[in-house]
Automatic annotation (TrEMBL):
Residues 8-47 form the S100/CaBP-9k-type calcium binding subdomain domain. It comes from the Eukaryota. SUPFAM superfamilies: EF-hand. This is S100/CaBP-9k-type calcium binding subdomain domain-containing protein. It comes from Takifugu flavidus.
């Protein structure tokens, strides 16, 4: 009998798969690989990283040091930030607070 995965499990699998696909199956990706993945998979994020200065600020928020490749941990920090922002904007009218830890 085939295992049926939840939507959350499928979403996590998609995040991991897309990261490694963009990194050419490596443990990290270059900023060029990151920009390509973001433009294809995260268009809202891509708008906030359209120029070098904005990209640098985004990478800094992700914990990426200047000249360093992006690890999955760095990418996960971005996903955490985006999820928290989306939750906050969709639940403001309900006065629901996200107790997620912010990095």
């Amino acid at each position: 009998m085939a295992t049926k995965y939840s939507e959350l499990e499928l979403a996590i699998n998609a995040l991991v798969t897309e990261f490694h696909k963009a990194a050419d199956d490596g443990p990290t990706m270059t900023t060029t690989q990151f920009q390509t993945m973001v433009s294809k998979q995260l268009p809202v994020v891509a708008k906030s990283a359209e120029n070098e200065e904005a990209l640098g600020q985004l990478l800094q928020k992700m914990g990426v040091q200047n000249g360093q490749n992006i690890s999955f941990e760095n990418f996960w920090a971005l996903i955490n930030n985006q999820a928290t922002q989306v939750f906050g904007s969709t639940h403001k009218e309900k006065n629901t607070k996200c107790g997620c830890l912010h990095q």
